[in-house]
Amino acid sequence: MRLWCLCAVLVLLLVGLAGLSAPAAAQELHIDVSDVPLRTALAEVQQQAGINLVFADRLVEAAPHVSCHYCGTDVAAALACVLSETNLQANETRSGQYVLVATGESAAERPALRAAMAGFVTDAASGEVLPGAHVYVPALERGTVTNEAGYFALPALPVGPYRVRVSYVGYATADTLLTAGAPVASVALQAREMQAATVQVDARRSERSDLAVLPGVVSTPTRELEQLPSFSGESDLFQALQWMPGIQRAGELTGGLVVRGGQSDHNLYLLDGAPVYHPWHAFNIVSTFQTETFKSIDLYRDAFPAEHGGRLSAVLDAEMRDGSRTEMRGIAALSLLSGRIVLEGPVTENLSFMVAARRSYIDQVAGSRHPVEQGGVRDTLRTGYFFYDLSAKATYRPSTRHRLSLSYYGGGDNLDLRLPFDLSLDFSSWLRPADLFFELDHNWGNQLVSARHQYLSSDRFFVTTTAYASGYRARERSLIRPSEVSTITSAYDVALWDLGAKVDVDFYASLDHQVRMGLHVRRHLFDSTLDAELQRSPRAVETIMEDSEARAFELTAYAQDTWTPSPRWTIQPGVRFSYFSGGQHAHLRPRLNARYAVVPGLLSARAGVGLHVQYLHRLRDRSTFLYDLVSSRWIPSDEDVRPSTSRHVSAGLELQPLPWLTLGVEGYARTAQDILIPRDELQRPDGLNGGGIDTGALLGQYEPGESRAYGLELLATAELGAWRLRATYHGGRSKSRSRALGEESFRPTRFDVPRALRATVQRETNRWVWGLSTEWRNGYPTTVPEARFSLGDVLDDEPTRFLHRPEVNNGRLPTYWRTDLSLGYRFGLLGAPARVQLNLFNVLGRRNVVSRQYDPAPEAGVAVQNRLGFPLLPLFELHIEL
Amino acid sequence: MDQPVHTRAWRRFLGCLLPALVLATWAMAGCDSVAPDPPERIVAEAFLTTGDSTPHLRLSRTRPLDAPLPSDGAGSALTDATVTLTVDGTAYPFTPAGGTGRYTASTAVPLQPESRFSFEAQWNGQTATAEGTLPPPVTLDSFRVNVPEAPIQAVLFDSVFVDPTQLDSLQLDSLRTGAADGFAYPIEVQLWWTEPAERAYWVRTRLRPAIAGGSSLGDFFLRPEQVQQEADAACPAAGDCLPPVRSWIGVYGVPVDDSNAPLPSHSVQLALIRGDEPYARFAATRDDPSRREPVSNVEGGLGIVTGIALDTVRVQVSQTP
């Protein structure tokens, strides 16, 4: 195994070093000669490229005067340019040496000189690169998409100028003239203003979408995500993504997103290439992803590009902003939940930065420490809770070919309580010295550092090298004193570290083929410890000291070709190999995606099929109050725990019947094997003692199972004048079963929602913004009893009444329906643009049933107890652009 | 601007296709439904005790949710089932004894340690079966009850404790936990018994005080009952015992009105049950009827048919003057 690690790291280093050493071989050439003797032009090439030229003087002397304008790194292309008006050609005999020979053909008879047209697409205001921008050459009916560095290349074009259309959602489409064979260009796009007065319908939206190959991808710009309604009153990625079809926010302890019926831990969350294992705060009310700090966010559902993997359901790939290169900018905002600030700007011409911070402040307003005194006894009660995020990124661009960036993210939640047991909303009744109390000191969060080098080694090669360390840790400390003689203390720690390095190479092979390949190695470290003492009485004392440790190494290699056999077709075959040291698992997973422009500009179709594998499982001890209350543990696959695998197929159509209207429909189906299903879905923490933190004990609460999900999604978006409308419908099912639990038929999963309808409508004028959003869906599954029976115990005098639940999740909660209203007003505050927004969550005050409990105790019938969701909540946000 | 004919045709086609897709997805999604009138199923209850030659068992049936289910079993008792208990290869027919669902054998049934048994009941076309092994007898070798001199301050509960797993659904208008500070006597009881050498079993230890009253000291923080593997019932302190002797300390609480109140004289049943894993699963999952039903070992039915060894002692507890 150590040999595997060593080999993989060596390969990565070699590839990375190859990228670093390439500048010597890829020197920029600027040949600009006009009507000069050939000998003069050749000398210019020889001098700039540092090559040896061998030729017969008579051939050169006999040649006519030549002209050449060439900028690039290709020596052969430079020589071809110089020799284009002669009957000579240059043949490379060995590295750095060329021989000129006569071809016998005239210049007119030789094929045209070819070169790449390449460049970067950037935001005109900030200089930020725009990943995923579309570059389209109408004359060739060909296009491409910028990579994560905003780079594009259309290789092997006949040298000359081309009219190019560059577009990106949220930006005005730019028509520009670019030259094949010219130096790497930079195309700056102007962001579209959101105000009604300047809203412009982008009539060429479908041309952009024609270029997107993958079905199911959500690439909404962060500017648009910020406009979508959010429960917390502030822009939040998870809240915004919920308005996309097939995406739901999971429960408060489950955390994360449920994408197309998958499990929450079947999603991979990436931040600048590094995984984030717990990307949510405040019991999943908000995510750790502050939308303003990102330049791009892509959510791949089912169909991932080959570079992504390791999960079954979805990949969220977020890239932090590099920081404005033009001017200092900033945002400060205050919502009911938190305050936040984002600052970005240039340090030097080549160096820019972005810093963002967010913190909830309820603990500062309401106070987190409450000194109390009664009868000469002093105590300090604590009610502290806050979450925070700190993001920073510095980007250094020594030249157009190099970009170095260093990213940091740190964030977490902190819960600090010391309270008496007799809580109620009558604070005065319990704000007193407490002899009997419980103390919780829990904190949990993520930290990551990612360093990235993006290098354009030649017009056709783009190398991205990333190294990262990403950690998730949780610390739970509890002290419970329920009586004078009993004390429960517990110290529980969970830590997960990922140390990884990867190299991704884009090779623009030809106009028809764009190849991406890469290598990724990572080391997983899992640790957890529990140290507890349960003193229930002076002599009933139980001590628990346990620890769990696991290590694993993962190696991944992939290759993917984006093949454009015709202007209408784009086919993307790919393959991904992965090896996981735990259990010595190795998998080769193919993928195939395709796009066909049925009616260019009107209708495009996409389809994808692929296999995925996941080596990590997120589990919790579901039985105890002593640990795993706020944290979760990831378990690596090994000899006993098989990796989960899945197969998926998806297909969709996108239609733009009117310039301002886009309609989409997409169907999907996915099956997964070897997922872990709780043995007892109804298990909840109900005691102090759990199974322990040993992995085997934890796995004893789960059984391997399989799942299947399928559905159809409809999406309609309209932008007309000041109006914006988004409506989605999702119809589908998500079911699972475990034969080990005796389940023969599939049953609905925890978040199975057969039908969900969501819509938002917004109207935006120069001053006012208002929006109305609504969500209607079937209630979540619940386990409904079908009968009652009584059963005694050998020690009891009377039997106990029980409810018989033959099937799990056999019923549903009542239909969920909620409507939110938002109203915003723009104004100037001390000369800075500002906006104040009022959000009315659940404006109709409908108390949705979020869980239901059945009590079998009554002699006749069953008592039903509903737990209700939040009532109407007014929320606000003040947003200032600095 | 004129559009190509094929473009207009596509639009017409899609104009028909999309509504059809909406209808298709609506129909495809479907919904779950609970069986409106599920068939009644056999519920078997038998604790075959080692050394007991006159075992009995109880049969009942499940009832619809809205049907009455009196605590005396009236209305749900099965009195017309065919029941056979086979012990070490010998079949013993069981017949109804009265109308309460109780079944007994007409002859003595030898329930010896390590005897294999199987149970079968037929009723209304259904067959319920179970099997198991009888454990060695168990005896409480000794016990000790510790009563504190005075009550201690303790948290008392009079309703359901807030479930921290349901934060999203907290009733914000009350936030009431049902807890209050009060006084109670924590009574410690230590039990000793001897583990058999033959094979590993599970044990259930239980303290069952006979106390009248409303509020209670939360069992959550005490330990009036525990189900564990017998080998895990280690002696709490060095010098208490050595294997194969096993020991367990349980705690129950007796709430009182104030810090000067004497301990109400009461009795407590000390119980020690040895059983197999199915019994342990049953015993560990029968404490929360509103959430789940106990794990059954009956194929084709519900309930529990298991072999146990049992020893109980009833002790009168009062404050030592």
Describe what is shown at a glance.
Chain A is built from 10 helices and 52 strands. Chain A is mainly beta and 882 residues long.
How many DSSP E strands of chain B?
A: 16
- Low-pLDDT windows of residues of chain A: 6-25, 194-208
Termini Cα gap of chain B: 106 Å
CATH architecture of the largest domain in chain B: Sandwich
Commentary on this structure:
The complex is a heterodimer of chains A (882) and B (321). Helix content of chain A is 9%, strand content 56%. By secondary structure, chain A is mainly beta. Chain A has five domains: 2-111, Phage tail protein beta-alpha-beta fold; 116-193, Carboxypeptidase-like, regulatory domain (Immunoglobulin-like, Sandwich), CATH 2.60.40; 222-320, Ferric Hydroxamate Uptake Protein, Chain A, domain 1 (Beta Complex); 329-721, TonB-dependent receptor, beta-barrel domain (Maltoporin, Chain A, Beta Barrel), CATH 2.40.170; 765-882, no CATH class. In chain A, a hairpin with a 2-residue loop joins strand 39 and strand 40. In chain B, 35% of the residues are buried. Chain B has two domains: 42-133, Sandwich (Immunoglobulin-like), CATH 2.60.40; 140-159 and 177-281 and 309-317, Sandwich (Immunoglobulin-like). Chain B is mainly beta and 321 residues long. Chain B has two helices and 16 strands. Chain B is extended and about 95 Å long. The N and C termini of chain B lie far apart (106 Å). The chains are: A mainly beta (882), B mainly beta (321). At the A-B interface, strand 28, strand 37, strand 39, strand 40 and strand 45 of A face helix 1, strand 1, strand 2, strand 9 and strand 10 of B.
